[in-house]
Amino acid sequence: MSQDVYPPNWKQIAIALKDACNWRCTRCDRLCLRPEEKAPHLTLSQRKAYTLQVHHWNRDPSDNRLENLVCLCSGCHLYYHRFGRGNVSPGQLSLFDERKVC
């Protein structure tokens, strides 16, 4: 999906939502890494597992109403996209299969 469907202030919207949920996944309650946290003890794939993302419930990245947005760790985010159509690439889905689901 093209990045231009996201508004110019998407990064600020996403950071504000992540701050509001204290960088925790709203599905599994996993505490995720903040951008400034380096976590040198974690491998790259482990750091990806602790990445908080913003999911659009209706899978429309141009619909940024608060009731359409939720913070999810990468595993939970992929879980919601796995069996439906959405803006997830095949590479992201293979990441889902490599790790334990939260």
Cα(first) to Cα(last) distance is 26 Å
**How many domains is the backbone divided into?**
1
Oligomeric status: single chain
Q: Structural class, judged by helices and strands?
A: alpha+beta
Uncertain residue segments: 88-102
Largest sheet: 2 strands, antiparallel
Instruction: Give average pLDDT, whole number.
Output: 81
Identify the overall geometry.
globular
Strand order of the largest sheet: 1-2
Into which percent range does the helicity of residues fall? 25-40%
The total count of strands amounts to: 2
What would you report as the Rg, rounded to the nearest angstrom? 13 Å
- Sequence of secondary-structure elements: HHEEHH
Strand-residue proportion: 5-15%
Q: In DSSP terms, counting alpha (H) and pi (I) runs of 4 or more, how many helices?
A: 4
Report on this model:
This protein is an alpha+beta fold and 102 residues long. It has one domain (3-98). Helix content is 34%, strand content 10%. It is built from four helices and two strands. A two-stranded antiparallel sheet has the order 1-2. Helix 3 packs across helix 4 (90-98). The longest helix has 11 residues, at 10-20. It is globular, with a radius of gyration of 13 Å. Residues 88-102 have low confidence and may be disordered.
Offer a few descriptive terms.
single chain, 102 residues, alpha+beta, two-stranded antiparallel ribbon, 34% helix, 10% strand, globular
Task: Describe what is shown at a glance.
The chain is an alpha+beta fold and 102 residues long. It is 34% helix and 10% strand. The protein has a two-stranded antiparallel ribbon.
